[in-house]
Amino acid sequence: MVNYTTRGTVSEAQPDGLVSYEVREIVVTANILFGEIVGLLGIVANVINVVVFSKIGFGDSVNLSLAALAVSDIGALVTLQWFNVLLNPWFLQLDLPFLPLEIASLTAGYPHNYFVKVTGFITAFVAFERCLCVTLPFKVKTLITKRFAIGFNVAVFFAIALTMFPVYYTAYYDWKFDAKKNKTVLGIFYTKNINDVLGPSLFLTNSVVPLVSFAVIILCNIVIAFRLKRAAAWRQMSTSASNTAPAAAVSLKEKKMVKMIVTVS
């Protein structure tokens, strides 16, 4: 049986900082409201993307991955919206039966990180598929099939979810006494083995896992840029002297394409 920490009281935070609480609340509230607006626009845009990809069809593996990417983005934005609500000074002033700052971690913070990691790996997969289109244009459809794309995207959602198990194994919600409100509220508690379990787990999931997807994206973009530049140089050399202007135009187009691919990724 897992040993849990004993219940405690929530101590009242003392004012600290260069500005007053009023100024800080105004700045924080403005940032949160701006973030909420941007987040809502992002959710709407991704919902539209999912609808568009559904109407186009998922015969192409790229459409499957892009639709999965839109779904993970929606999850990341929805959890971020909830996180912003919990941090809103106006919301914190309400007489709530729970502590918003403690509820935020398991209901908003970690779920948001989950969807961000999923987004990273799906983006890496899309970059890898795009890299194959440049390096192996005649074999990419054989290597990346519709079934493979479905399996990979589902596996990413499932595998990243498994990495979140230690977080929810070492933390739980229960009732505690809040001295500031002078009543019992719902807050977070941690198991006694949290340092042994959560420390190595967070290092793996928050450092190693994101770096892997980031490295794949960088490597694929380097390969794409190199192959496109080499193809442009070959076409320019193959062009006769009388077609210097068209060759220069093609070279300029290839350079713009390389910059666009790197920027989008």
Fold and architecture overview:
With 265 residues, this protein is mainly alpha-helical. It has a domain of 184 residues: Rhodopsin 7-helix transmembrane proteins (Rhopdopsin 7-helix transmembrane proteins, Up-down Bundle), CATH 1.20.1070. The chain is built from 9 helices and 3 strands; from the N terminus they run E-H-H-H-H-H-H-H-E-E-H-H. A hairpin with a 4-residue loop joins strand 2 and strand 3. The longest helix has 45 residues. The radius of gyration is 25 Å and the shape is elongated. The protein starts with 8 loop residues before the first strand and ends with a helix. The N terminus is likely disordered. It is found in: Membrane. Keywords: Membrane, Transmembrane, Transmembrane helix. This is G-protein coupled receptors family 1 profile domain-containing protein. It comes from Biomphalaria glabrata (Bloodfluke planorb).
| Order of the strands making up the biggest sheet | 1-2-3
Assigned CATH class of the domain at 23-206: Mainly Alpha
**CATH topology label of the domain at 23-206:** Rhopdopsin 7-helix transmembrane proteins
The major β-sheet equals: 3 strands, mixed
Structural class: mainly alpha
**Helical stretch count?**
9
SSE sequence, one letter per element:
EHHHHHHHEEHH
Uncertain segments are 1-13
**Mean pLDDT score:** 82
- What gap, in angstroms, lies between the N and C termini? 47 Å
Helix content: over 70%
CATH superfamily of the domain at 23-206: Rhodopsin 7-helix transmembrane proteins
- Indicate the overall shape: elongated
Estimate the strand proportion: 5-15%
- Tell me what the CATH architecture of the domain at 23-206 is: Up-down Bundle
Indicate the radius of gyration in whole angstroms.
25 Å
Number of strands: 3
